[in-house]
Amino acid sequence: MSGALSRLQSLWKGKGEDASVPVRDWVSTSAGRPTQLQGFDITLVWVVLALMAFGLLMVYSASIALPDNPRFSKYLPTHFLTRHMVAIGFGLTAGLITVQIPVSVWERWAPWVFVVALVLLVAVLIPGIGKVVYGARRWIPLGVMNFQPSELAKFGIALYAANYMMRKMDARENFFQAVTPMAISLAFVGLLLLAEPDMGAFLVIAAIAMGILFLGGVNGRMFLLITLVLVGAFVLMITFSEFRRERIFAYLNPWDEKYAQGKAYQLTHSLIAFGRGEWLGQGLGSSVEKLHYLPEAHTDFLLAVIGEELGFVGVALVIVAFFWLTRRCFLIGRQAIALDRVFAGLYAQGIGIWMGGQAFINMGVNLGALPTKGLTLPLMSFGGSAILMNCVALAVVLRIDLENRQMMRGGRS
């Protein structure tokens, strides 16, 4: 324990919010005796709540005019606001329940959570079970919300990959023993997601799995080989899919007359929204692009509405918040690994990859830095199952931090 504490002291030294908490306040004077869980990362909780509250406000702003569209004519102006509030309520309730569950339980049940996600990914493809929206079969109607199995798959792959690395720790230098089972799992998930189709979710899931493998110590040459195989697979998917190929061409030249009113329509109007926002924005509620010019303004392109209404300052605050959240997940993971809790540490870092990676892709798409892809902004965009699983995933990270603090007081995790 003393060795772990000394390692943690070196990690905390000069680390922003962690450095502000004296080590003597974290450690029990009666080391070795179990203590009750006390204290939690209040800043992490406030950042998550702030992102969700800001997202709720912007979802309302982005969707308030949708009933003017004949497609949404039967909806009230507060329809999406109400549904998003319900989703946040479910998410916070699920998070409060999840934080009570010991990390050891998640470690034990990790493979089964992944199996449940796979079963639901198969079920959503069955006519009569999966709901088709815009030609994609990605949702299972549950009455109060449409559940998206790919969101559970992101949570499941983080648990499974962390558990997998724990079990394969002694075989990290052997390619077939360390990599093949995970590669097969990823390939199966990829086939199911591409059948929906949902390439964006597969990109995030692959990033989570690959990131955990890398952080878990898989041989660098093996990691490079897997990366090249994945990149090759993506290139082949784009090459043999005319729809995806056209999206790439539209991304490269969005203002071309051929694409501006077609594949690049969303991108061009997103860029117009950012251009109108300038430094301080047009004012909350004053977006023009959300008035049926920019499709999916309350989901995939919520950041564009933020940029138009609140300008560079609003977008910069969102970017800083997600950077802090990602960094905090990694720090909690490092603390757990320093306490020899490898599964907990790898999982927390995997969630950091999820939140940071998906936010990065969504922001890149909105800003025209990446090809258009249907991915929401975590914790903020409209979407019930996404908010629910984001809350559950981050609640487990908060539980890891709670158990880290208990161990540092001399108790047991």
TrEMBL record:
One of its GO terms (molecular function) is lipid-linked peptidoglycan transporter activity. The gene is ftsW. Peptidoglycan polymerase that is essential for cell division. This is Probable peptidoglycan glycosyltransferase FtsW. It comes from Roseateles puraquae. Keywords: Cell cycle, Cell division, Cell inner membrane, Cell membrane, Cell shape, Cell wall biogenesis/degradation, Glycosyltransferase, Membrane, Peptidoglycan synthesis, Transferase, Transmembrane, Transmembrane helix. One of its GO terms (biological process) is cell wall organization. Coiled coil: none annotated. It is a multi-pass membrane protein.
